[in-house]
Every structure is written in C-alpha cells, then in structure tokens.
Design a protein that fits this description.
alpha+beta; elongated
Length: about 675
C-alpha cells in the first residue's frame, strides 16, 4: 500500500489510575470500527492508542500501594492491553508517556518553546483540581468547584513555567469558528463562550510539588506538566523529535482525534496552540463524543459506577459489546447503559434480524437448490427496489463514516437487513417451492444471498465475529478490501454452505436476574479486596499512631509554653462545605473547609462521633498554620479543634454566628 492514501486516527491516551471499564471501551471501539472501515476502503491506516502515565495522582496512588509509580502503571497498562485484545482492537501502536523516546522528544519540545519565548517562568496563584490535574481561575469555577469534574478545588501557589496560550487566542477562535476542525459544531459554541470569549490565560506547564514526570532539561526541580507531555504523544508516537521521523512525515497531520467531551478543551484550544507555536500542521478534525452514562451519571472509576466489559464479553460475546456501543449510543450525545437496553438490542438486531436472516436464507438455499445459485439473466420489476437498496447502501455508509456517525452507518446497514427479512415474507419462498415456481424461487434466493453478502461485508469493521462466519457460510473468501464486493451481482454463482446460530436468543428476565447476581458477587469481592487493603495498611496506621504518641510525649515533656509560642498558633473560624469518610480508615473524615476566601482539605479522626452529613454546614475552629501532612493518601492542611472527655467528643465551635475566616483570639 505504498501509494495508498493515508488515514491517521487516535484515541485519547487513557489515565491508568483505576479499573478499566465500558466507558473506556466506548471511544476505543468507535475508533477501531472507523480504522477497520478505512483499511477495507484501501487506506493506509495508522491507529494509535495508549496511556498517560505521569502526574501527581499516579504518584499518590503508587505511594498508597507502597510501589514505585512505574511499577503501578506497568500493572494497569498490562490490564488495558488485555482488554483491547479481548475487544479485538486493531491498533497499530500503543504509546506510553513513560516510553523513553517520548520523554526525550517532550523534553526537547519544552526546551524549544522556552528558547523561542513561548514558555516563561512565573508564579501560579489560583485554584487547583487534583483529580483533573487542572489549574483554574476563580471565574472559571462552577459553584466554586472544578468545571470539568465538579469536585472541590484547593488554593495553590507554586513556581511554574507558563505557555503563552493567550498569544494564540485569535487564531484559535478563527480555527474553531471558520473551519470544521472541531465536531460536532455544538462543541464550538461551548469552547468559544466558556473559554475564549472573555480572554485566554497563559497555561501552567510545569510543577515542582511532585516528581513523577519528565524533568525540564534546563531546570530539573520542575517536571513537565500534563499538557505538553500528554498531548504531544500524537506526534512523538510517529517519531517527531527522534532520529527517525519517517512515520511523522507520512501520517501527520492526523485525520481524526476522537476524544470525550470532557477533554475537548485540551484538544481544541491547548493542542492547536502548541502546534502553532511549533510551526506544525494542525490535525484535520477533533471529534468530541458524549459520555456513556449509568444511572444518569458519567461512567467513572472515581464514582464507582462502572460496567465490567470482561463479564459482558464472557457472557454475550465480543460482537454484542461492540454492537451495543456503536449502535445504541447517539454519536456526539450522551448515551445511557442499562442491562435491559443491552439485552434488548442484542435480541432485536443481532438475533432476530441479522442472525435469523442468515440462518433462514442458507437453510432454504440448501433445501431448495443444494446451495447452488446462479445470477438471474434479468432483474424482475418487483425486485428493482430491493436491489437498489442493496446497491445504494455502501454510499450511504461511507457518507456517515466520513461524518464520524457510526450509529447512522449501522442504522443504514440494518435497514437493508430488515428489508431482506421483509423480502422473505413478501415472496414466501416456501410457497414458490410448493407451487413449482423454480425460476422465481432461484431469483428470490439469489437476491437474498447477495443482500446478506453485501451487508455482512459492510458489517465486518463493526462486528469482528458474526459477519465473518456469514461470509464463510457462503463459502466465499473473507475479503480484506471492499473493492467490488459491495454491489449486487458481484458473485454470479454460489455454492453456499450452512451457518449455525450466530447469536443465541436471550431470556430478558433470566439475564437481568443473572447480571444482578453477578454484580452482587463482584461487589462482595471488591469489599473483600478493600478489607484486605485496609489490613495491609495497618502497619502504616500503627506508625502514624507512634508518631502521634511521640508528639504527645514531646508536648508533655514541656508542659509550659511562652506567650510567644502561643502566638505562633493561628486559629480561625472555618465552615465545613463537604465531608466524606476515608475508605482506608475507620476513624477519619475528609472535610472540605472554607476559611475566608480559602478552601482546604482537613482530615479529622472524628468519624465515630460525627457523620459526614452532620459535619456539612458546621462552623469549626481550625489551626491554619499547621504543617500539611499526608494521611491515607490525602494531604491534610490544618486541624479541626475538638474537646474530649472519656468516650465523648465535641467540636469546638463559635458561640455566636460569625463568618468563616474570623480570627480566634
């Protein structure tokens, strides 16, 4: 395929901080279907996926587990590769941001941008969301929380290097408004109105508060922050910045970056600005799809509302998962997963329509003609409309794939499958056979067989098991290219075989019960695993207790303090905005406390005396200048004061109504 037209498609690189789930599979299966389709159209395709492995969250996760960050991500990467293998994902390369060639290239990109004046050193002051690893201004917050994930943010002040993002604002607005770079178009309005209209701030692109990242070449106390590291994978995977950039020259710019809507901002504003600064061509299209929802909320590791693709694949097969994701979720919009919708879609389309059509037709071919069929010399008037629907199908599918609308492409294919089933009912081959109308029976069975061949061929990029079995049942070679295989009459003579039950019918009621039982069993396993994890951390807790006792002993050794010592302690009134239990502790509550115009995370050992619900809204007294301390994987910035007597404990609170931030004196 040296002279073939190229097609470069990418998924986002996934963050390996927890269990992989059906939400990750959604984007990857969509890209895989498009990549397979383009290959069968004759394109020289390069399909990239991978993992984004640096950052503060990974560093903390690894610390909690008592392993190095690299050991932690190695295990998670092995898991995601296993999942992609299960779902028959045909990626051409899997990039890891810990790959040596990537780290070297990213360091070089950072230095280049610094030397040409697009990166400069300053101090960041503002809000920070740890889960998203994002800096925000006060005006960008929504109800005081991260606009991307809705979680609490903390105050941050840190020396950083900044990328001059503001320099490229006008060019980015022009890119979004006057080209088809970002799809669907609804995303353009979101980006312009929410992030560009009122100006664009420069972007912090280095950190000093953690070490798990790529060091800045000329200032090694800084590590390169997520944007330049993660986004550059799309070019470093092709050899940009290396001794061999032949793949970059061949495939860049990318034809399609497929991303979830939560990271559209990074790909439609930050990424093109970086490329503009480097003087490189921009990707041809970024497509921001919706979320896969469960119970009305985004499927997310941190929210615990995930569906295990391993369980679904083991019970229902790969085609079932791939088809549901591609067909049921409206492309560009959010879609909702439910076990009932999943099983209903399998029964309706794969069992009743496709599987039943193939089995009925091949069985009748064998019964009436021993599988031997020949193309009719002429087309009957009553068959013209049906044949035309078969011939027009490939053009319709191609149109929707070019629009990145996989759902509509599948709708068109199954529309012809439905017409073929209706064609059987209208022409009633069994009646033709009974009446001895052999010529007409031959015409009907040939037309049906051709419709099955064309639809099965077009389904191959989307479903990797069933369509191949259908073509094998027709005793035809499985095509690697569409070529002339998508038109009626391409096969003039058949000697068809048999095809078994492609997709067994499912009892909806029984399957819902079975899936519910499996979910309960898995939840039990997860609870046991959490219990074992807590036991493994007992030693750490004991060590923490020792340190606490040591501090208490040190305090009792010096029972008296001077007024100067006391004045060092800063006490202020705080208001608890949110509170939650810490999974790995029976006594800790993780509290989000507002102190004046600041918001802090403070862990307190009061879970036996107060519920999270009771804490929200309470005014408390906080030691604000206590040195931050890591507790159960969280940084606690302060201490909430309590009074205790025996087995009783009470929060210290202001007697009268007073605003948070007031000094206690």
């Amino acid at each position: 395929m040296e002279n073939a037209k190229t097609f470069y498609i990418t998924t986002p690189i996934y963050y390996p901080s927890g269990k992989w789930h059906l939400g990750h599979s959604y984007t990857t299966v969509c890209c895989d279907a498009i990549a397979r389709y383009k290959r069968m159209c004759g394109f020289d395709v390069f399909y990239l996926t991978g993992t984004d492995e640096h950052g503060q969250k990974i560093e903390k996760k690894a610390e909690e587990k008592g392993v190095s960050p690299k050991a932690y991500v190695d295990e998670r990467v092995a898991d995601i590769k296993k999942l992609w293998n299960l779902l028959d994902i045909s990626y051409d390369k899997f990039i890891r941001t810990t790959d040596g060639y990537h780290e070297k290239a990213v360091a070089g990109i950072f230095t280049k941008l610094y030397e040409q004046g697009d990166i400069y050193k300053s101090v960041y002051k503002g809000k920070y969301c740890t889960p998203c690893e994002s800096f925000w201004t006060e005006s960008q917050l929504i109800d005081g929380k991260c606009p991307d994930c809705g979680r609490e943010v903390t105050d941050a002040e840190e020396e950083c290097y900044f990328f001059r993002l503001s320099k490229y604002r006008d060019r980015i607005i022009d890119l979004l408004k006057n080209t088809d770079y970002l799809q669907p178009k609804t995303r353009v309005n979101e980006m312009v109105n929410n992030f560009l209209k009122d100006g664009l701030n420069d972007l912090a692109v280095s950190r000093t508060s953690f070490k798990w990242g790529i060091p800045v070449e000329f200032d090694d106390k800084h590590v390169i922050y997520v944007w330049i590291d993660a986004l550059s994978n799309y070019i470093t995977a092709l050899g940009y910045g290396s001794d061999d950039d032949s793949l970059y020259k061949k495939y860049w710019p990318a034809d399609l970056h497929m991303v979830g809507k939560e990271i559209v901002r990074f790909h439609s504003i930050i990424w093109p600005a970086i490329l503009m600064a480097l003087g490189l061509p921009l990707p041809k299209k970024v497509y921001g799809h919706g979320w896969l929802l469960l119970d009305g909320d985004k499927m997310s590791k941190s929210k615990g509302n995930v569906v295990d693709p391993y369980i679904l694949a083991d019970r229902y097969g790969i085609d079932a998962i791939r088809y549901y994701l591609l067909r049921e979720i409206p492309f560009g919009s959010d879609g909702t997963y439910s076990n009932e919708a999943f099983i209903t879609r399998i029964n309706q389309d794969l069992v009743n329509d496709l599987g039943n059509l193939a089995k009925r037709t091949l069985t009748m071919n064998a019964k009436y003609f021993g599988g031997k069929l020949s193309k009719p010399a002429t087309v009957k008037t009553e068959d013209e409309q049906f044949i035309e629907s078969v011939n027009a199908l490939s053009e319709k599918v191609d149109k929707y794939i070019s629009e990145v609308n996989v759902t509509k492409a599948l709708e068109e294919i199954f529309s012809v499958v439905g017409k073929a089933n209706k064609y059987i009912d209208v022409n009633a081959p069994w009646t033709l056979d009974k009446n001895g109308e052999k010529q007409r029976l031959m015409e009907v069975m040939y037309n049906l067989t051709e419709a099955i061949r064309v639809t099965a061929t077009l389904l191959m990029p989307f479903l990797t098991v069933g369509p191949k079995k259908i073509i094998e049942g027709l005793n035809l070679p499985v095509p690697s290219l569409f070529g002339e295989n998508l038109k009626w009459g391409a096969v003039e003579n058949y000697s068809t075989g048999e095809v078994g039950i492609l997709y067994p019918r499912l009892d909806l009621g029984k399957e819902l019960v079975a899936l519910s039982e499996i979910a309960e069993k898995e939840n039990g396993k997860n609870e046991k695993k959490a219990e074992n994890t807590e036991k493994k951390q007992t030693a750490d807790k004991k060590q923490d207790k020792k340190e606490e006792n040591k501090m208490e002993n040190e305090n009792t050794e010096n029972q008296y303090i001077t007024i100067d010592d006391f004045c060092k302690v800063q006490l202020k009134v705080g208001e608890v905005l949110a509170s939650e239990k810490v999974e790995k502790s029976n006594k800790l509550l993780k509290n989000t406390v507002k102190i004046g115009d600041q918001t802090r995370t403070i862990l307190s050992g009061i879970a036996k005396f107060y519920t999270p619900e009771e804490m929200v809204g309470k005014k408390v007294v906080v030691v604000t200048n206590l040195k931050p301390r890591m507790m159960c994987g969280f940084e606690s910035c302060g201490m909430i004061l309590c009074a205790s007597e025996g087995d009783k404990l009470s929060l210290v609170s202001p007697e009268k109504l007073i605003e948070s931030g007031a000094e206690v004196c």
